[in-house]
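Schema walkthrough. Field components (list of strings):
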Amino acid sequence: MSALRRATIWVPAAAALAALMAWEAVVRLRGIPPYILPAPSLVVRTLWSNLDSLLVSWLYTIKITFGALLLALAGGVMLAAVFALSRALELALYPFAIALQVTPIVAIAPLILIYVDSTTASLLICAFIVAFFPILSNTLVGLRSADPNLQDLLTLYGATRWQRLRWLLAPSALPYLIAGLKISGGLALIGAVVAEFAAGAAGRETGLASRILEASFRTEIPKMYAALTLVALTGMAIHLASNALGRLLLGHWHPSERR
Amino acid sequence: MSAAIELDQVDKRFANGVAAVQALSIAIAAGQFVSLLGPSGCGKSTVLRLVAGLEQPSAGRVRIGGEAAQARSAAMSYVFQEPTLMPWARVLDNVALPMRIQGAARAAAREKAHQALAAVGLADRAGAYPAELSGGMKMRASLARALVTRPAVLLLDEPFAALDEITRHRLNDELLALWGTQVPTAVFVTHSVFEAVYLSQRVLVMGGRPGRLVADLPIALAYPRTPALRLQPQFTQHCRTVIGALQRAEAGAAGPR
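Field assembly_structure (string):
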């Protein structure tokens, strides 16, 4: 591992540690009460003592997030392929995609909760709506960015549509798709949490947003921080995972991932 | 010999109204090496694209081996100014691509690609990605891809224009050697008088806008041609003739039309 690669691990780790230590020190030295701002050590203890309920909620949020992300990936890529093949369909359907994209999810989540019986399905739909647009628009740009000379070459050799898609369009679009995925991964998590806030759901099948809401009703500030910590860690894990996926798929050829 | 490539009174106007070539008639015999020479914008590349079937003529006829040109002719290959390799695929798979498109199994296509790479001296770089190759090596890979199908017609659109002069001279020699073994009908578009004369049996000088054929000059120099030829008086004499034709073309183009 090169010095530069090592630095990409220890620099952010050291910065995070320093921030946590400063936070802890400020809380202790100024005697800030835990119902205003809990120290990181208290957040960790609260996380530990509520581990069972938080883990169940965490798994539920993860389920919604990745379910929505997979749907967004499938839907975004398929729609982009359809648009790339048919300009007419793109003109007809793209306004709908944009309308969905710009409508605040908190505004439509209550409607979806009314129309759809299952809360889990509603949350999946909300998170999907938030996550799918970056994948659609990026993949569409990618499919249109294939080298025109390579396009001509395939025409010259009489490539079929399927061969063109497989050997030229799909690989050309992949870097764009990965860039979209990096955005959508975080958005799917935000969508999953925000939609649950809007749902205000209670009961067994609930995610981290419900734990945060509950804790805020009871002014259990350390527990809010504990749940928020899990959301933040999940977001970072998604970010790292999509970076790793990008390196795995593009590292051998694309300038964005070459080092 | 029958005409392998025949353009008969071809006009090409693009959708935006620009006329690229006008009343162009060219006949090229099978196995001939012909250069298309002329200033930028005279329609040389358009001629190549018409022959390849990538463009359709607005008027007139383009025939390849007696049949109307259409893209899908398995017997044709095209080399672009840029190497135009797929950056995500290894050199071997880039060269194998035309065989794969035409339905060859992966193993058979790779076998042919290995042979083509060996012919251009790139056998040891088969597993590399294009980004790991120098400009000259990428162009060799591009040539290998063009030759892997053993085309009857080889179209080259300023393939060496972006290379340094030393590399360009070497690739000129390699191209001639490859042409000598497979003897496709070769049409080579270039800006360089010296490259055109060194390579070809015939130099077609184009000029004007829209482009017309202004001179059809045979190059009576024997093959194999070697670098020493560039210093021979008969080489210089041919270059002088071609330069004269180019100058007349430009003087004609500058006048009222």
